[in-house]
């Protein structure tokens, strides 16, 4: 490990916090990895009708987002879908 | 008005029994009439932490089965005039008591005591359900670790589903030196994740081990955890107490420093 790695390294408490946040979201939503995989595949199917997407780079997760109402944080499904090309032929 | 408080955590070994013993003793020191109930049937421990293990005659199961009256089973702590312990049974299993029986017992004890503290077992099974059945509020104990916080979150969810009126958090065994280095989640980090009210933080301290060895809760004595526990008790009875600065040492010079800061 070089001296410079010290500056790059994330503190272990931040690692713990990030891991926990993801873990609790799926715990609270009671959403298993299998269901997430099914959702992901269905999203790919739908979007692929209209655009060419990078299915390898597709990433979906459930996170906490501040709600616009007054009830604090709510779970939200965040999908990051890289588009390769928009189909114009329809 | 009396209040029934359950101490829960989900994960084992985070300090539920130590917290129960210190909160119960602390409330008694604040002149409240308190009974501590150990609801961990089969694995009783609160008696040894309190140093009352040699005085057990009857236990919780005897009471709910009607073998004796609650008065006969409750051990009076001779060190404090207002403190009683209702020990658990060591040789029975957790199904010996039902949530309804606990509710009835707690309702009966409410007539006589200001505070009823229920030390719940680890896990989310029958023992936990018994402990929360008659409770008005809950103290969730967690340590700044991923596993303990995950379990605490699950417990908080279950308590909310059971319509617990008030749920507060105690962050136990925090080490400020590690927090400073970024190697332990801070109190703020834990609160950020669990999103419930903080009622106190207790430092990881060798005095806790010493106190447990001796069977004498350290609440109120001249140590950092002793002060932290007493502050928790004060908040329970409704006093406004600022959160203790755990970064300050507890040595002679630190105390002089604090003395001058105060003035």
Considering the chains and any ligands shown, give keywords for the structure.
heterodimer; A: 90 residues; alpha+beta; two-stranded antiparallel ribbon; 4 strands; B: 263 residues; alpha/beta; Rossmann fold; 8-stranded mixed β-sheet; 8 strands; 17% strand; globular
The H-and-E topology of chain B, N to C, reads as EHEHHHEEHEHEHEHHEHHH
**Which CATH class of chain B?**
Alpha Beta
The residue fraction in helices of chain B comes out at 40-55%
- Whole-angstrom Rg of chain B: 18 Å
**What characterizes the major β-sheet of chain A?**
2 strands, antiparallel
- Whole-number mean pLDDT of chain B: 93
Number of strands of chain B: 8
- Quaternary assembly: heterodimer
The percentage helix of chain A is 40-55%
CATH superfamily of chain B: P-loop containing nucleotide triphosphate hydrolases
Q: Give the CA-based shape of chain A.
A: extended
Rg of chain A over CA atoms, rounded to whole Å, is 18 Å
Name the poorly predicted regions of chain B.
Answer: none
For the secondary structure, the number of strands of chain A is 4
